[in-house]
Amino acid sequence: MSLADSELVDPRFFATLANLELIARSVVEGFLHGLHRSPYVGFSVEFASHREYLPGDDLRHLNWKLYGRHDRLYVKQYDAETNLDLHLVLDVSASMETRSGPLSKMRYASALTAALAHLALGQRDAVGITLFADQVLAHLKPRSRPTQLEEILQTIENMPFRPEADSARVLHEVAELMPRRGMVVVISDLFFEPQDLMSGLDHLRFLGHDLLLFQILDPLEARLPVDGHVRFRDLETGAEMVTQPAEIREAYLRAIDMWLKELDTSCSSRGIDRLYLTTDQPLDRALFDYLTRRAQV
């Protein structure tokens, strides 16, 4: 069985792999294999190198095959138009170590980050990475050179101790490292005060960046699917609480729902795309959403 024949975007598969490069390659190959077999074949992959026709465009650059299939006019874009700077911004704070299944949020987020880097570099985009917690812990400028994926993977694998991060004000520090307009993908659980989070995202928007958020939660955080006497421990502060989830589940789920709706409203009003994932979900949706957003930039 080839790599592309396996369920490579299923978290249960890459939880068994230790090598991040193999995970990235496997996830992307599996995703692209599935994309080419789907009714959406050609949508994001083709349109990432095309844009809709505008009056005054050179008619010699029209793609008539796409017109025949989609009944809309598209023109071919060339490298100067299509290549962009992709900034991968990964939250490595202690809360990302939460794990109730085979994968922690950190491992899931690392696999997603590696897969996005592999996918974007394959499109000849320049890709960089920034790791943050309470401050910026590592930064690699976007480049499209052959060794860039290896350096990105090494940056992730060599990430320092994960400290507490109770504020999103660090995103202002992140923004200062990215003066050149590009696409910024933030991968985090977003456990920050909404006001601080939106202030940091507004800073990135002010600099002209296109923003995409991948919010990752553990199923335990999302649904509280446990019973009995349970001891909960905050991975950042060390604070502990013993309770019976059945007694607090209704109020907890209501609070989670209100929080996610507040994030939705704040992001939508700013034109920011936010994709919500739990660590038991396949990565197909995340990669497809990235390609779709990439095609619109």
How would you characterize this protein structure?
It is a single chain. This protein has twelve helices and ten strands. It has 297 residues and is of the alpha/beta class. It folds into two domains: 42-79, no CATH class; 83-296, Rossmann fold (3-Layer(aba) Sandwich), CATH 3.40.50. The strands form three sheets. A six-stranded mixed beta sheet has the order 5-4-3-6-7-10, sandwiched between helices. A two-stranded antiparallel sheet has the order 1-2. A two-stranded antiparallel ribbon has the order 8-9. β6, α9 and β7 form a beta-alpha-beta unit. α6 (105-122) runs antiparallel to α7 and α8 runs parallel beside α9 (194-206). The protein starts with 10 loop residues before the first helix and ends with a helix. Mean pLDDT is 83; it is low at 1-6 and 39-47.
The biggest sheet, with number of strands, parallel, antiparallel or mixed sense and barrel status, is:
6 strands, mixed
Order of adjacent strands in the largest pleated sheet: 5-4-3-6-7-10
Mean pLDDT: 83
Sketch the topology as an H/E string, one letter per element. Answer: HHHEHEHEHEEHHEHEHEEHEH
Return the CATH class of the largest domain: Alpha Beta
Which key features would you list for this structure?
disordered N terminus; single chain; 297 residues; six-stranded mixed sheet; alpha/beta; 12 helices; two-stranded antiparallel ribbon; Rossmann fold; 10 strands
What's a concise summary of this model?
The chain is of the alpha/beta class and 297 residues long. 43% of the residues lie in helices and 19% in strands.
